[in-house]
Amino acid sequence: MKNMKSLKMSIVALAMLGVVGCSSNSEKPGADQEGEVTSKAPQDTTSEEVTEQPAQDPDLSKISLPDGFEISYFAQKVENARSMVLGPDGTLYVGSRDKGNVYALPDKNKDGRADEVITIATGLKMPNGVALRNGALYVAEISRISRYDNIAANLKNPPKPVVVYDKFPTEEHHGWKYIAFGPDDKLYVPVGAPCNICDRKESVYAAIHRMNPDGSGLEVFASGVRNTVGFDWHPETKELWFTDNGRDLMGDNLPPDELNRAPRKGMHFGYPFCHAGEILDPEFGKGKNCAAYTPPVQKLNPHGGTLGMEFYTGNMFPENYKNQIFIAEHGSWNRTEKIGYRVSLYRENAQGKGSFVPFAAGWLQEGKEWGRPVDVEMMPDGSLLVSDDMNNAIYRITYAGRK
């Protein structure tokens, strides 16, 4: 769970992977009594019952997993399901990108399947990112962060959102955002490069920012980050780790996507000058030295569409999964031979040596994809959820022991 880590650990203790967008709304909202502003974005709430267990989708039999693991549907008909965050009551909140919706998926009977799909917001500008703090749901659009207070008690009658911050750039390219609260109680918000490859001088681009929960104190935390759509904090060191998507048009195999670690503020990860710690950009790398930038912890699949990631801290999976990273690979869009379309695992041994291996694969069959993993989210029982914006689904991966 990628809201505050303290919340994640308390829940666990109790229960136990280039494209389009839209510009921001140009309406000028009115100010409330605390100086924040209330959004006038269109609001609608709909609910679709999913309590009836459908027949097993034959596609799920195509997913290969390690021995002892099983996959099922947590929810279907979640249109364009993207980033996820879990509430303390077990309600899963899901953003979308192209659809413009935000969803709530309660599981009140704790049977490992959502009771219903509730659409709590519509008509938003690529509301990919969702985060939780003190009962409030934060939603990230292209240029705006909004807050829905006391959301769990008002799923079918959500309050008008309060605008927390609305001064991010409006460019569509890499404008959608993944957001999460860090262990420092600050909201981390990336702004991608508004291009495939360019050197924009404004520090807001190609960076991970952080701000106070009320939107004040915005600052750059990490720069040289082309487009991250997933990050998490190490459960022990509390250091930020994040994925980053490499540039296009350098061939099928260059550059690789990246898994990065940012233990402190002010680090530069190379874009647009150096890629993956060692590849000088053919245009912007002239006169640069890759040694001046922070290299990735792990090189990932080139053009694999590496998106959501999370450290596994649950108790359901075998012990050797503890504190390792699950990564969703959305899949390539312009590679000659398609790659990705899976959930992978980054592991480190006792000596700190890392490996990157497939965990759940099969959404790509004979060069044709039927699903595209976006994000991963651990449940209190230790099971792992995977969102899919192509198959409009949330999967649940469990471990029943080796057979």
Q: Helices and strands: which structural class?
A: mainly beta
CATH class: Mainly Beta
Cα gyration radius (Å): 20 Å
User: Ends: how far apart?
Assistant: 29 Å
User: Tell me about the biggest sheet?
Assistant: 6 strands, antiparallel
User: How much strand?
Assistant: 35-45%
Proper CATH architecture: 6 Propeller
Low-confidence stretches: 3-55
Q: Report the average pLDDT across residues.
A: 89
Structure annotation, total helices: 1
Helix content: under 10%
CATH overall fold name: Neuraminidase
Number of domains: 1
What is the assigned CATH homologous superfamily?
TolB, C-terminal domain
Strand arrangement, largest sheet?
1-2-12-11-10-9
Strand runs, count:
32
Outline, from the CA principal axes? globular
Q: Top keywords for this entry?
A:
globular, five-stranded antiparallel β-sheet, mainly beta, 1 helix, Neuraminidase, 403 residues, disordered N terminus, six-stranded antiparallel β-sheet
Summarize the structure.
This protein is mostly beta strands. The chain is built from 1 helix and 32 strands.
Structural summary, described in words:
The protein is an all-beta fold. It has one domain: Neuraminidase (6 Propeller). 3% of the residues lie in helices and 36% in strands. The protein is built from one helix and 32 strands. The chain has one helix spanning 5-15; strands spanning 30-31, 37-38, 46-49, 69-76, 81-86, 92-96, 102-105, 116-121, 129-133, 136-140, 145-148, 162-165, 180-181, 187-191, 207-211, 219-223, 231-233, 240-244, 256-262, 267-268, 274-275, 279-280, 298-302, 306-311, 325-329, 342-348, 354-361, 364-365, 368-369, 373-378, 384-388, 393-399. Strand 21 and strand 22 form a beta hairpin. The radius of gyration is 20 Å and the shape is globular. The model is unreliable at 3-55 (pLDDT under 50).
